[in-house]
C-alpha cells in the first residue's frame, strides 16, 4: 500500500466528502511501517472505524483531528507508541467501544474517557493498562495479553471506574493487579475502601498446580466482594509445583462473594486433577446462594483420562457438606487446548449482561 499513498489519500478525501460513517482500512501486504494517511483524520463523520496493519502517527500528528461521532474503534496489528491510542481516545468524545488486537512491542495504555463503556484487548503486548478515569466503563476484557520482554507481568491498574461490572480474564501468572494505589498480593489485608463493589462478573485463568497462581485467587475474590458470576479456566500447567487439597482452601477462610453473592460458576478446561477438585469442593461447601454450575471437560485428546473418567470425579464428589442446591451441567470440549480465541463481537454486545459466560442459564418459573 505504501506505493499507492497518493491514490489512497484521494480515496479518503472522497469518502470524507460523502460523509462515510463505517470504515475498515487494512494495509496489504503485511508491512506495518507504512504510516496511516493523515487524511483519514479529516473524516469527522465516522461512527465506526477499524484500522489494521499500519504504523500509527504519533500523538502530535493527531493535532486538530476530531471524531465527534465515533462510537467504535478497532486497532488491529498497528504499530503504536506510548500515548498514541490515548490521544485518539481523547479526540473521540462519543467513543463507547475500544478494541485492540495484535502482537506489538510493549506499550503503556492510559484510559481517560467519559464515554467508554467497553474496552477489549486481545493478544497485544502491554507493559501496563491503566484505567485513570472512565466513569461509564462497564466491561474490561483482557484476553491473551502478553507481557513485555523479559518475562515480566503486565500491570493492570483500576483507578476511577465506578460502573465497572465485567472484568476478566485475570491471570495471576500474567498480570499484576493494582486497585487505586494498592497492589494486590496474596494475604494482603483489605479494607472496604480498597474494594471494587460494582464488579458482578469476574473471570480468572489459573494454573491450579502453581502455588504463586493459586494463592492469588482468594485475594482477587476478596477485592471484588459482590461477584455473582465467576468464570474459571484451568490453564495448562506443564510442571506441577504442588498439590492443593481442601485443607489449603479451608485455611483461606470465608470470602464474602463466595458466601453471600455467588450464583453462577463455570469451570472450563477441567482436567480432573486433585487441585481443581479441592477448589470446587471449597466453593460447593461455602456458596450459600449458588444456583447454576457448568463444568467443561478438557478435550480428551489432551489428557490421559477419558471423558467418562473425568465426569466421574465430579459425580463422585462428597456432597454431604454442600450448603446449597444447584443445577449442574457437564459438557466436554472438542476444541483446542486453551479454548478458542476471544472475539470482539461478544464483548461489544452491550445488551449481553455476561458475554464471558460459555453458556446461558435460563431459570424456568412455574
TrEMBL record:
InterPro entries: F-box_dom-containing, FBD, LRR_FXL15/At3g58940/PEG3-like. Residues 253-293 form the FBD domain. Residues 8-231 form the F-box/LRR-repeat protein 15/At3g58940/PEG3-like LRR domain. It comes from the Eukaryota. This is FBD domain-containing protein. It comes from Triticum aestivum (Wheat).
Amino acid at each position: 500500500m505504501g506505493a499507492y499513498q497518493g491514490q489512497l489519500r484521494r480515496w479518503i478525501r472522497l469518502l470524507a466528502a460523502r460523509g462515510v460513517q463505517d470504515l475498515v482500512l487494512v494495509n496489504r501486504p503485511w508491512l506495518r511501517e507504512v504510516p496511516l494517511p493523515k487524511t483519514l483524520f479529516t473524516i469527522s463523520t465516522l461512527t465506526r472505524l477499524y484500522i489494521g496493519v499500519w504504523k500509527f502517527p504519533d500523538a502530535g500528528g493527531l493535532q486538530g483531528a476530531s471524531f465527534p461521532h465515533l462510537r467504535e474503534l478497532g486497532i488491529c496489528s498497528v504499530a503504536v507508541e506510548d500515548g498514541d491510542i490515548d490521544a485518539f481516545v481523547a479526540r473521540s468524545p462519543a467513543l463507547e467501544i475500544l478494541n485492540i488486537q495484535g502482537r506489538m512491542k510493549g506499550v503503556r495504555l492510559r484510559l481517560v474517557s467519559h464515554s467508554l463503556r467497553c474496552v477489549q484487548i486481545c493478544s497485544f503486548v502491554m507493559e501496563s493498562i491503566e484505567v485513570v478515569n472512565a466513569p461509564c466503563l462497564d466491561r474490561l476484557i483482557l484476553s491473551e495479553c502478553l507481557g513485555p520482554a523479559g518475562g515480566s507481568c503486565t500491570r493492570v491498574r483500576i483507578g476511577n471506574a465506578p460502573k465497572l461490572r465485567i472484568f476478566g480474564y485475570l491471570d495471576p501468572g500474567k498480570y499484576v493487579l493494582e486497585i487505586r494505589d494498592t497492589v494486590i498480593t496474596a494475604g494482603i489485608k483489605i479494607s472496604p475502601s480498597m474494594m471494587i463493589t460494582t464488579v458482578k462478573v469476574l473471570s480468572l485463568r489459573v494454573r491450579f498446580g502453581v502455588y504463586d497462581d493459586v494463592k492469588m485467587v482468594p485475594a482477587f475474590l476478596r477485592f471484588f466482594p459482590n461477584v455473582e458470576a465467576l468464570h474459571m479456566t484451568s490453564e495448562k500447567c506443564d510442571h506441577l509445583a504442588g498439590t492443593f487439597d481442601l485443607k489449603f482452601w479451608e485455611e483461606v477462610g470465608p470470602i464474602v462473594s463466595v458466601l453471600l453473592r455467588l450464583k453462577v460458576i463455570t469451570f472450563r478446561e477441567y482436567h480432573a486433577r486433585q487441585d481443581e477438585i479441592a477448589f470446587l469442593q471449597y466453593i460447593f461447601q461455602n456458596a450459600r446462594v449458588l444456583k447454576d454450575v457448568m463444568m467443561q471437560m478438557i478435550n480428551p485428546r489432551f489428557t490421559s483420562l477419558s471423558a467418562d473418567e473425568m465426569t466421574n470425579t465430579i459425580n463422585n464428589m462428597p456432597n454431604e457438606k454442600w450448603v446449597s442446591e444447584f443445577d449442574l451441567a457437564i459438557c466436554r470440549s472438542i476444541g483446542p487446548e486453551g479454548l478458542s480465541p476471544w472475539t470482539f463481537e461478544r464483548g461489544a454486545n452491550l445488551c449481553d449482561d455476561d458475554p464471558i459466560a460459555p453458556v446461558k442459564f435460563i431459570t424456568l418459573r412455574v
